[in-house]
Amino acid sequence: MTTELRYLDFDYSEDTEDHGTFDAMASTTPDKTPEVKEEIAVVLAWAEATFPHARGALDEGAVWDYDLQETREDNPRFDTLTLSLSGTADFCAALREHFALD
Description:
The chain is α+β, with helices and mostly antiparallel strands. The protein is about 25% helix and about 35% strand. It contains two helices and four strands; from the N terminus they run ββαββα. It has helices at about 35-50, 90-100, and strands spanning about 10-15, 20-30, 65-75, 75-85. The chain has a four-stranded antiparallel beta sheet with strand order 1-2-4-3.
């Protein structure tokens, strides 16, 4: 079963060590920010449930890791959340399949 994402649209890249990175950015008005945060929470909960206790630095043998940034612009008012999710080839394949990422 796949989970549809409404706000996060991931771009994919790979490094020379067979690790992949999915980057997504969502800029919304503040009233939509909780929905974006919930979607990010769903993705991270899936990662932890599917690859439990495997988060950490990939160069130290972990399976997956993430970085989350939030910025706020005042004129006009927008919140921007940026999620980078990195992992091994197996993690990336599972993420791609579960969230139907092409």
